[in-house]
Design a protein that fits this description.
278 residues, six-stranded antiparallel β-sheet, Serine Threonine Protein Phosphatase 5, Tetratricopeptide repeat, 2 domains
Amino acid sequence: MKNLLILLSLITLSINAQTNLKYDKRYIQCEDKWIAKQMDKDSTYVLGFIYIDAAAGLTLNYEGKFKIINNVFVRQNEEMSVFKVRLEPNRIAIAEIPEDRFNELGILKFPEWLTFYKENENSIERLYRWGFLYNGWDECAKALTYLEKAEKINPKYKGLEVELAYSYNCLSNYDKAVLVLQSALEANPADAYVNKELIYAQIKSGQLDKAAESFKKASEICNDKTYNGENCYNLLQAFYTNKDKLNFNLWLDDAKKLTSGNAVLTKNILAMEDQMSK
C-alpha cells in the first residue's frame, strides 16, 4: 500500500510538471490573463480570457478548449462560438496559462479586442468602478490602488469616500476609515450604509462609546433601517468580548428585537447571554 501511494504521488507530480498548470488563482486575481479551468471528463481544459467590463463587471471570454498531448497544449476544433460569462464573487480555483504556452495555443498575450475595454483608463469613473469591483471580491488592497488614485482627482466623487472606507475597514485600518466616513457624513448624515461602516470602524478601533452614539443617531435619522440589527449586534458582541456585563445587559433587549428575523444572530446572542449570566 505504501509503495502504491508513493507511485501515485510520483505520477501526480509528473503530470503537474508536464502540464505546468497551477490551480492557485481566483478569477479576480487574473484580470487581463489567459486562464484554464479544471479538465473535463474527456481530459480537455476550458480556455478563457478574463477582463473587466465597466458595465458587466469581471467577465470570462470563453475561447474554446484544449488538451495536453505529449506535453503540448493543443487547441480543439469546436463548432461552438466564443461567448462571455459574467463572473460573480466566488472562491473557485483556476490556473493562469504560462506565457511560454501562448504559441502552442495560437493566442496573443492580449487579444486585439481588449483595447476597446482600455479606454479612459485614468478617468475617475473608471478608477472608482475598478475599486468598487475589487472590493466586491474582497481584494481590498488591490481596490485601494484604484480608489486612492481616484481620490487624488476628486476626493468628493460620489460614493468614493465610503468605498475607500470599506477598503480601510477590510484591511483593519480603522482610523483612516473613521476619518473618511466622518467627512462623508458631513454631506449626507442620513446615509445608512455610511453610518454602518462608521459604526463598524469605531467598534473595531475600540471606540465603543462613540460607536454607541453613532448607532443611536443613525437609528433616529436614517430612513433605511436595513443595518440596524447588524450594527446593534456588533456593539453587543464587542461588549461581550470585553466582558462588559453592564453595557451588554443594557443593549441586550434592543439587539434581540432588531435581530429577531435573523436565526444565526439570534442564536449567537442567546449563547452570549448564557455565558454572561454565569
